[in-house]
Amino acid sequence: SCLGLALFLKKALPEARVDVFLGDFPRSLRKNMFGTEMIREDYETDAEKYDVFFCLDCEASRLGDAGPFFRGAGLRINIDHHISNAGGCGDLNYVVPEASSACELVYDVIAGTAVFTSAGETAVQTEAAAEKAAETTAETAAEKGKTPQGGSCAGRVNTDGPDLLDAQIAQDLY
Cα(154)–Cα(107) distance, rounded to whole angstroms? Predict the structure, then answer.
């Protein structure tokens, strides 16, 4: 999930600096995965402050040496599927305990179907939204199986604030 989001951000925002903080990332996996050169296992950076910090697949207390970067970031975004983090720990949160993995949620963010909550808020799904989700389950599952070469990227991150990713940039990616 971390590398998938990082690769997407680099493609969408080529001038942006993207660092991935992962400790103990197995060397055996590096030869089979794209983007591993962005991993900073040493947690050292010359960045004074990050504009945006994504906390993926965990809560803030599990960030370890990356915690100070998260706390000091201009915008903190938490994407997680663990029930123990149901309220989220970011300024914007996309936490879905029913999801199979954080990678599934990263796909939702890229596809523009994620519903973020602000700190202290809870997402409320209306009956109409639930019916729409039920209608598109098979279609969504088929889309999630596509590769970027298949053109599966659809849009932007949905928030109550300014767009985090311009829809035109996302459309031009594939």
Answer: 10
Dist. CA 106–CA 7, nearest whole Å: 11
Rounded Cα distance between 83 and 96, Å, is 8
Helix axes 102-111, 127-144, angle to 10 degrees: 100
Stretch 83-101: mean pLDDT = 91
SS3 content of the chain, % helix, strand, coil (to 5): 40, 10, 50
Distance CA 145, CA 13 (A): 24
Structure-token pair, residue 165: 């990713």
**CA atoms of 141 and 73, how far apart (whole Å):** 34
Averaged pLDDT of the chain: 74
Inter-residue contact 75 to 92 (CB < 8 Å): yes
Separation CA 167–CA 155 (nearest Å): 5
pLDDT of residue 98: 92
Tokens of 85: 């983090």
pLDDT at 6: 92
Condensed to tens digits (0 to 9), the pLDDT of residues 107-124 reads 998 888 778 887 655 444
